[in-house]
From TrEMBL:
Region feature Disordered, mapped onto this chain: 380-482, 528-584
Biased composition (Polar residues): 407-438, 531-575
Originating organism: Lepraria finkii
GRF-type domain mapped to chain residues: 599-652
Alphabetically ordered keywords of this record: Hydrolase, Magnesium, Metal-binding, Nucleus, Zinc, Zinc-finger
InterPro entries in UniProt: AP_endonuc_1 (IPR004808), AP_endonuclease_F1_CS (IPR020848), Endo/exonu/phosph_ase_sf (IPR036691), Endo/exonuclease/phosphatase (IPR005135), Znf_GRF (IPR010666)
Pfam families noted in UniProt: Exo_endo_phos (PF03372)
Phylogenetic classification of the source organism: Eukaryota, Fungi, Dikarya, Ascomycota, Pezizomycotina
Name of the protein in its database record: DNA-(apurinic or apyrimidinic site) endonuclease 2
Family annotation (CDD domains): Ape2-like_AP-endo (cd09088)
Gene3D superfamilies, per database record: Endonuclease/exonuclease/phosphatase (3.60.10.10)
Compositionally skewed regions (Low complexity) per UniProt: 461-474
Amino acid sequence: MLGVILAKRAWVRNPFGYQPWRDKRSYAAMFDILEADIVVFQETKIQRKDLSDDMVLVPGWDCYFSLPRHKKGYSGVVIYTRQSVCAPIRAEEGITGILCPPNSSTSFSNLPEEEQIGGYPTPSQLASSAVDATTLDSEGRCVVLEFPAFVLFGVYSPANRDETRDDFRLGFLDVLDARIRKLIAMGKRVLLTGDLNISREELDAANAEASMRKQGLTGLEFVSTPARRLFNHLLEGGKVFGERDEGREEPVMWDICRAFHPDRKGMFTCWEQKVNARPGNCGARIDYVLCSLAMKDWFSDSNIQEGLMGSDHCPVYAVMKDRIHIDGEEQDTKDVVNPPGMFSNGERVREYSTANDPLPPSGKLIPEFFGRRNIRDMFARKPSIQHSQSTDIASKDAEVSDAKGSVNGSSAIETTSTKADSAQALSATAPVASSNDPSVAGTKRPIGEVSNNKSLKRAKSGSSATAPAATGKGQQSLKGFFKPKSNTISNYSGIAEEPVVSEANTHDAIWGPDLEPVAESLEDKHDLATPTETASPLSSADGSSRQKVTRSGTNGFQTANSSPASRSASTQDQATVHDPIQSKESWSKLFTKPAAPRCESHDEPCITLLTKKPGMNLGRSFWMCSRPLGPSGAKEKNTQWRCQTFIWCSDWNPNAANGG
DNA sequence: TTAGCATGGCG
DNA sequence: ATCCGGGGGC
DNA sequence: CGCCATGCTAATCCCCCGGAT
C-alpha cells in the first residue's frame, strides 16, 4: 500500500507543459498516474503568491509546503497526501524545530510534547554547528509529516556546490542525521525521502572513477568525503572507512531502492541537464527513499522511474505492503497511516473531514485557499458529485482507491522527487533501459526503435518529445516495459471531486496573512555551484574496472525478503502488483500525440496560460491561440493575429477531441 | 555528455 | 500583459 | 616532422525574476 516517489522542480510549478500530464492537467490526475498516495516534490521554486488552486486545492489530497523564507524562486518542498489512504497526525516544517506553526510564535521544539513530532537537536548540538538553526531552516528544504506508524521527511538537501556552501550543507545533514537518530531512539520509525544530493558510493555515480582519479582518492576515500561519510554511517550496509564516528555508532536507516536492486549499475536518479547526460545515463543516484530498520520489510517494491523524462531528476518510489508488522503485530497499513479511529482492519470507520482533518500547516488552510474549492471542479464538465458534506469525500475517494487496489493489489505511497524547476520535468519520453544487466549486456535495447544518435538529442522543453533511444549503458529493468499492461490508468479516471468545503468554521487564520518577514539577506547571493559530487568529465565507466570493494557490511544490501527477481529483464514477469513502470508504458502512448487543442483560425496548437486576475477564475488555466495579439488589440477572426480560441483547460479533453 | 586543445610517446 | 536580458542553480 | 593516445577544460541547460515595452 503506499509508495513513495521523489522528484524535482517543474512538476509542481509547471508540469502541464509536458506529457503525460498535458492530457489531464491536474495534479490529482498526475498523482493517479503515478499511482502514488504520498508525493513529495523538491525544488518547487514557488513563492506563496504563486500558489494556485491547481496546486493547493487538489481534490482528494492535502498538501504541506515549505517555502524559502527570503530567496524567491528557490528551493521549496511539498508533500501531498491522498486523503482516502492516509492522513498525517502532525506536520512540521524544517529540520531543527525552530520554525513555528502557522500564525504562531512558538517553535515546534517548544510545543508540548504531545503536539510535536520531536527529536529536535539539542541546543548544544545546534550551537556546535557553523550555521544557526534559523538559517538552516530558512530555505524551504524540509517538510515533516507524522503518521502513527512513522515520521516522514521530505527533504531537499543542499547541493554540493562550492566551499562557501559547505558549512550549510554539512550543517544541514548533521542536524538531519541527529534528528533522525533521535526520533528512532525515541521509538519512532522514520521514512526519509527526497533529494539528498549525495551519491552513496561508487555504484551510485557514473563519474565516480573519474572523480576519484581527479581528486586522487581511493575507493575508501571516496565514500569518506564528509557528506558521503555521514550518509554511509546512517545506512545499514553503508561503507564506513575506519572507526565509526562518535554519535553514529550504529546505522539506523535502510536504503529501500538499493535493497531491491543490490548490484544494479546505472541506477541513477539525476543527470546533468546542461550536458544532456541523461541519454548516455551518465548520472548519479542522489534521490532516495530510506526507512528506519524497523520498517525494512514493510515494502514490496522500490525502483526509479527512469522513463519519466523532463527533469534532470527522475522519480524514485517505494511501495508499502498492505499489511505490515509493527511492534510484532501484523496490522493493516491503512490503520496506522491515519489518525487513530479512522480505519480499522483496513476499513474506513470515520470519514475524512476536509473541514477538520487537515493539520495547521496544510496548504488548504492558507487564508486564500481556506474554505474554497478548486475552481476547476466547479466548471468541470464531468458532473462532479456535489457533496454537501465534506465527509463524503473520503468514502468517495476511497472507492477510487479500492478500484485501484483491485488492479494492483496494493496502493502506493509514492515520493516523487523531481526537479521542479527543470522545464523538462515531465516531458516524459519512452523509458530507456538496458544493458548493464548481465542478461542484456551487449545487446542494444532499442526500446523505442530509435537508434541513431539524433534521438539522443535533448528533448526540447515543451515539445512532446520523441522516444529516446536506448544506448549501451542505460538503466536496467525494462521489465515493466514488456509487461502486458493492465488498465491501471483508466481505473483512476473517476477521481473523486472535492466538494465545496464548509465555509466558515473552526478555522481561524492559522496561516498568517503574510509570510513572516525574515531578516533581509542574511547571506548574499553566493551559492554558486561547482559540481563535484556528481559532475565531472571522463569515462562513463561501464563499471568493468570498478575496483572490488569489500562490502564488509553488505548485509544492508541483501535484499529484503520480498525482493523480486528484478534483474532479469527478459524473464517472465509475475503479473505483479503495482508496477509503476507499467504505467509508463501507458504513458508512452500518450507521448505520441500532442494534446494541445488547435485554434480556430489557424489550426495551430494552442498555448496555456494561467488566469492572474483576481476573481472567480484566479489560478485557472486555459488554452488560447498562440499567435500574438494583433494591432487592433483584440482577438480577431481569420487574420494572422491571435484568434478568439479560448478553452478552459478543465474543459479540454484531447481524447474526445481527437476522436480517440 | 561532447568538442577542442595541449601534451607526450613513438616512428 | 508580454518580451527580453541578467542572474542563479547544478 | 606527423600521427595518435591521453588528459584536461569548457560549454552545453533550464528556470526565475525584474524592468522595459
